[in-house]
Structure formats: C-alpha cells, structure tokens
Amino acid sequence: MKKVLILGAGLVAKPLVRYLLDQPNIEVEVASRTVSKAIKLIDNHPQGTAKELNLKDEEGLKEEILRSDLVISMVPYSFHPKVAQYCIEFKKHMVTTSYVSEVMKNLDAEAKKAGIIILNEVGLDPGIDHMEAMRIIHEVEGNGGEISSFTSFCGGLPAPEANTNPFGYKFSWSPIGVLLAGKNSARYLKDGNEIFIPPEDLFENFSIINIEGLGDFEAYPNRNSLPYIELYGIQSTQTMLRGTLRNIGWCSTIKKIVELGLLDEEEKDWIGLAYKDFLRKLMNEPVEEDLKKALSENLNIDEDSDIIKRLEWLGLLSDDPLPLEKGSALDIVAAKMLEKLQYEEGERDMIILQHEFIASFPGDKKEKITSTLIDFGIPQGDSSMARTVGLPAAISTRLILEEKITRSGVHIPVISEIYKPILQELKEMEISFKEHRQEI
C-alpha cells in the first residue's frame, strides 16, 4: 500500500480525498490544523486517517512526510517551499494545485537529484487550462502549423438558476483571494504589442465575450500572461492573454470598491462602529451628510446607479454593527460578502473555461479553434470548483504512484506524459471540452 499525505482540508479537498480513498492500493492521511474537517473528509473510511497538524510544528510535519510516499499540499502557497524541502530531503513526491513560485522553480535541480517530481499547477486554473492548451498546441504543431494568437478566460460562477444576487457572484473559495485579485496589475501581448495595466486601471480594461448557450460575460486580464509564451512553447504568437470571467457589472463595481479603500489591508480600530460609520470614515465624510449622496459624489456616479444599489444590498450603508472591532477594511468587506454571497442548499456553481487560438498552416491557411469547458456542480454534492481543482491533483497522484508519470524535477502539466492521461480520465468523468474549428 502506498501512503498519501494530504495537507489541508479546505473547500476543494473532498473530491480529491474520495478519489484516492477509492483506489485499492492507497492509504490516505488528511492532516489539518482543524482536525474536525479532516475527520469529516475521511468519513470513517478504512483506508483513511485524520490527523491534527499545525504546519508551524516542524518536527510533526517532518515526521508525517517521512512516513508518506507522496505529499499533496493544499495549504496556502507560502507553505509549499517548506514542504518541498522536506520532500526533497526524504525523497518523497509532491503535488500542488498552486502557481509555481520562483522559490519552487529554484528547487528543480535538487528535486531531480532526489529523483522525485514536484508537480504544481495541477488544478483547474492553473491546471486543466494548461493541459487543454498544450493538447491543441501540440496537435497544431503536429500538423505543421503554428499558433499566432492565444486567449484564455476562466471563471467560477453561480449556475444561471443560482445567479440570484446583484453581484452575479457567490463564493466557492476564499473571498479574500477573490477580492485581492482586484488589486493586481496585468501584462499581456496583443497583436505583437506588450500591454501593461496598472492595478488602478485593471477593471476599466475588460471586454465582453459571448459563451455559447450562456450569454455575455465580462473578461479582464489576469496578472502576467507573458511567461506562458515560453511555457507553452509558442514564440510565434502575436497575442497571449489569460484572464478571468465574471457576470456583467462585476468590473465596474469592484473598481469602485477599490477606489473607496474597501480592500485596504492595514489593520485599524473600528470600535463601536456600524457599517455606515465605517463607510463615512473611509470617505472622511461628516456624520450629518446624506450617506448615499456623499457616496455617489465620492465615486462620481449617480445615486440610483447599479453600483450604489449593490453596495446598499450588501449592507454597507446599514446601521448593523461591524463584525469586528479591529482589523482591515478588507477583512470587514470579505466577511460581509461571504455572509451575503453564499450558495444556498442545493444550488449549483458553474465553471467556464474557454481557449481561443488562431493557428496558421502552410499555404496561407488559417484556422480559429475554440475549446470550451462548461461544468456544473452537483446539487447536494460536490461543487464544480472542488471537482475541477481536486480531481486533476488526485489523478496525477495516482499516475505518479503507479509510475506512469516518471519525470523528476519541478513541473507543471504541459508535457504529454502528464496531461494526456489526466484529460482522458477527466473526460470519462464528463469533465470535457467542446471544440469548434473554422477556417478564417
């Protein structure tokens, strides 16, 4: 029996844990600071154990890694390098769904020397997006073509029937992570020109794209797309853009939320304040001012605008007391949004991931290739977010333990040995892309 250690028991862990427990030759240990979450995930399965573990307990962490064959790190990315160092020391494979940091990249030679693979970015985005991109890129290249344009957008959203609030959004993962994306800059390539967008302009630079069968969505660039030209091996491309999908109205609203200072991370005292006082304090407005009028003037928008209505619906203009007396503005807003933007019992989430390529072939032939994944959560069951993040990590874990993935070093799933079997198994689970091609 092979032993897999899973660090973390968060929102996307359940399908991952259950897949591995269903394998006849794998034992699973879930280690979490909150052991009750780990116990719930194991659910008395004979091949599973739950363990309380604080990652700051270095000796405890080393002991658990030493007793495992492979470690899946589902904890915040800042802990991954420490886990990776121990995996290298004890010659244990490692899998994460997080982006590869520079620190992790620099462990490549050590991982190769230890004869282990550290496989990162094997979730949804990053993860499935890389795999499907590389499948098509390799197919185009195999037919003598080259990629001249690549755009990709991904969004985790409520299914249409569950889209029941003014924000058009509900949380299937960390609200702070979603909101902090509103403070990122972006860099991408468009028609051969490098474009840089500073954080304050991010949400002015969105486009509207149509997803067949679902309608229009806002699409905005996500961080730095340029490294993917080299990672995907498509130096021929004149456009490289990776971005995020949201329902209509999201970008203009988050832009104003940023302008108000609602995403500030500095810890402050808010003793005895209601939400309306909190808002006034952020705007430096006196108490006697009409709050809605002051807000509209501060943001330079109409009092009856959809943005003001969304902030009012959220409760930021209310007499309700703040949920904490000390903390950041971001903490307060994240707590309120998590309270109000929740999935109700039985509601489904939805994942949309769409790649669009322009491929050039000999003889002046050009082809537009669109590949779209639309996946829905299971009512009363797993969310689509949990399935599309957790299952690729689980499948890759099994393939590594069965020695069907034999690479060593630090990797992401852009090589066929890794992505082909994962995509095939996901397809068997009905997580698959619909492809459309047309000559242009």
Category by helix and strand content: alpha/beta
* Number of helices in the DSSP assignment: 16
Please state how the strands of the largest beta sheet are arranged side by side. Answer: 3-2-1-4-5-6-17
> What is the correct CATH architecture of the largest domain?
3-Layer(aba) Sandwich
The major β-sheet equals: 7 strands, parallel
Q: Segments where pLDDT lies below 50 for 5+ residues?
A: none
- The share of residues in helices is 25-40%
CATH topology of the largest domain: Rossmann fold
Average pLDDT, to the nearest integer?
A: 94
Number of domains: 3
Through-space gap between termini: 54 Å
What is the CA-based Rg, rounded? 23 Å
CATH C-level label of the largest domain: Alpha Beta
> What's the shape?
globular
* Percent in strands: 25-35%
Corresponding CATH superfamily of the largest domain: NAD(P)-binding Rossmann-like Domain
Number of strands: 18
Describe it for me?
A seven-stranded parallel β-sheet has the order 3-2-1-4-5-6-17, sandwiched between helices. With 440 residues, the protein is of the alpha/beta class. The model has no long low-confidence stretch (mean pLDDT 94). The chain contains 16 helices and 18 strands. It folds into three domains: 2-125 and 386-433, NAD(P)-binding Rossmann-like Domain (Rossmann fold, 3-Layer(aba) Sandwich); 128-251 and 344-381 and 434-439, Dihydrodipicolinate Reductase, domain 2; 267-327, no CATH class. 35% of the residues lie in helices and 25% in strands.
